[in-house]
Write a structure and sequence with these properties.
The protein contains nine helices and 13 strands. Strands 7-6-3-4-5-11 form a six-stranded mixed beta sheet, with helices on one face. It has a five-stranded antiparallel beta sheet with strand order 8-9-2-1-10, sandwiched between helices. Strand 1 and strand 2 form a beta hairpin. The termini are far apart. Bound molecules: zinc ion.
Length: 307
């Protein structure tokens, strides 16, 4: 499990969240067989999403983030919910690039240029979709830009993932600083100075864990503690829905070719297998729905005008 601590700094003007997501990144590495570079990109995104999840107001809220750049890693997708369960995947888990000149993993090259899309489902309302251009592909800057542009929330963010020689994560986490309304200018300057000391946040976590970092930077502050975790929420019902969306023709064709339909969850690799009977059950449900839709269609509509 990860650890997330929230506190207030600088006369309660700045909200600060410190995260240790080492366990979460290791779970992602073992599920997806990530290269160190892919682990850094996906791990930073998982860390940012664990923070975002901790800001959700109600139990049903959830979010997904898609980072779609032209770098060697392809797309990164992470989903999270209000219980602080996060999960994610990357198109190319084997991605490799030479280290940067400063010795860090080249996450900017992994991600490349492109866009970040955040979908937040809040209660029963239409999901809120925010989309913005990636700033550097380094992910922390990209999330900070997203907050500034799409949520009008100034945000300072440091994210980091350190991978050991054996390919396992030895330290991952982040620091997120956000000014509260009417925060005085001195508090913001203080937050900026603090953030600059977290340019190697994964190194700080690797050396001292969250306790060590807390002792060095935030000793004596009250805090609330949360336990984010890598956990998938896929289910047979969810996969049913994905298959139904493909439509009868595609389902029948795949069944005829393969003798069964096998679907792997992209976030946890769990396999769902559908035999002939299962597929017939889905199709029966589909035509039931179609009949209901046709019965319910009022006469004289201009359905099909655009076909
Ligand atoms: Zn799953």
């Amino acid at each position: 499990m990860g650890i997330l601590r929230k506190t207030l700094l600088y006369d309660n003007g700045i909200s600060a969240s410190l995260l240790d997501t080492t366990d979460i990144v290791n779970e992602a590495i073992s599920l997806h067989g990530l290269s160190p570079l892919a682990a850094a990109g996906l791990g930073r995104t998982l860390t940012a999403c664990a923070f975002m999840a901790s800001c959700m107001k109600s139990r049903e809220d959830r979010l997904s983030v898609t980072i779609n750049g032209d770098g060697v890693g392809g797309r990164i997708v992470v989903a999270a919910d209000a219980e602080l369960h996060v999960r994610g995947c990357i198109d190319n888990p084997d991605a490799v690039l030479p280290l940067r000149e400063d010795g860090k993993l080249n996450v900017g090259g992994l991600v490349g240029k492109g866009t970040m899309t955040v979908v937040r489902s809040v209660g029963m309302k239409e999901p809120y979709v925010g989309k913005c251009r990636l700033k550097s592909g380094e992910i922390a800057e990209d999330f900070a830009a997203y907050y500034a542009i799409s949520e009008q929330q100034p945000t300072g963010m440091a994210l980091g993932v350190r991978i050991g020689k054996d390919g396992k994560c030895i330290g991952a986490g982040g620091l997120v600083l956000q000014p509260l309304p009417d925060c005085p200018e001195e508090s913001i300057s203080g937050a900026e100075a603090l953030l600059s000391q977290f340019s190697d946040v994964s190194g700080l976590i690797a050396r001292g864990g969250i306790e060590g970092v807390w002792r060095d930077f935030f000793a004596g502050n009250d805090y609330e503690e949360y336990r984010p975790e890598y956990r998938c929420n896929c289910s047979r019902e969810y996969i049913d829905g994905v298959l139904v969306a493909l439509g009868e023709k595609e389902l029948r064709e795949t069944l005829a070719q393969e003798g069964k339909i096998e679907v792997g969850c992209q976030f946890c690799n769990r396999k769902y297998v559908y035999g002939e009977e299962d597929v017939e059950r889905l199709i029966a449900g589909l035509s039931g729905e179609r009949n209901r839709a046709e019965e319910g269609r009022p006469e004289g509509t201009d359905n099909g005008r655009n076909e």
